[in-house]
Write a structure and sequence with these properties.
The chain is of the alpha/beta class. It has a single domain, classed as Spore Coat Polysaccharide Biosynthesis Protein SpsA, Chain A (Alpha-Beta Complex), CATH 3.90.550. 32% of the residues lie in helices and 21% in strands. It has helices at 37-46, 60-63, 84-92, 114-126, 151-155, 163-168, 186-198, 206-213; strands spanning 10-16, 31-32, 35-36, 52-56, 73-76, 101-106, 131-136, 139-147, 171-175. A seven-stranded mixed β-sheet has the order 5-4-1-6-8-7-9, with helices on both faces. It is globular, with a radius of gyration of 16 Å. Residues 1-7 and 203-214 have low confidence and may be disordered.
Length: 214
């Protein structure tokens, strides 16, 4: 069970089943500061909970190797080509009944920091019955925390993601400009490489430690 600092139980689902068709290569395996984006997102999830589920897709045989040694659960969405909603449903279905809320993380929001995610968790602690979402670029989106009462709706998703729930339901939010950056096209990859060159990974982070050991 994933006990948070407030005594509430938070789980995380890392959504990493996409086929990266527009990008033209596996975003899961691309590296930032010598750490694969998939492993980076999984490690960030494990910084705020001890119950993490990673949803993989068609590339699962290769992608799961990037998660070696991490204490998490892997599930496969065999219909990942249909849309993000199916992956959300697949991951949520793997959670224990004792969980109070789920944190949804995308694999390609490469500018996110553990501090960003911790801020969102802190916001959820203050209003645990409401959705807590990141706010950026004039909208709300992932990373986002859904309380247990939304699990049935999350499990019912198929093609589209959980955006409709953010529009319909009351929620709290954290301003998070870093969440606006994602990786969908070759142009986005150029931006990520520029970000990588201009930003030094903070000392003491998992990625920095990996770099020091290379």
């Amino acid at each position: 069970m994933a006990a948070s600092k407030s005594g509430r139980n938070l789980a995380a689902v890392v959504l990493a089943a996409g086929n990266s068709e527009r990008l033209g290569q596996s975003k899961q395996q691309l590296q930032l500061h010598k750490v694969a984006l998939l492993r980076r997102a999984a490690e960030q999830a494990l910084q705020v909970t001890d119950q993490a589920v990673v949803v993989l897709g068609a590339g699962h045989l290769t992608d799961r190797k990037l998660l070696d040694g991490l204490p998490l659960r892997i599930t496969i969405n065999t219909d990942s080509h249909i849309g993000l909603g199916g992956s959300i449903a697949c991951g949520t279905a793997q959670l224990d009944q004792q969980v109070d809320a789920v944190l949804l993380l995308l694999v390609d929001q490469y500018q996110l920091t553990t501090s960003n995610i911790e801020s969102l968790v802190h916001q959820w602690h203050s209003n645990p019955e409401q959705i807590a979402a990141a706010s950026y670029a004039g909208t709300h989106g992932p990373p986002v925390i859904f309380p247990y009462r939304y699990f049935a709706k999350l499990k019912a998703l198929r093609k589209d993601g959980a955006k409709s729930l953010l529009v319909e339901q009351p929620m709290t939010s954290v301003v998070m400009p870093s969440a606006a950056a994602n990786l969908n096209t070759p142009a986005d990859l150029v931006k990520m490489r520029h970000f990588e060159q201009t930003r030094i990974e903070p000392a003491g982070s998992d990625a920095a430690a990996d770099n020091e050991n290379d």
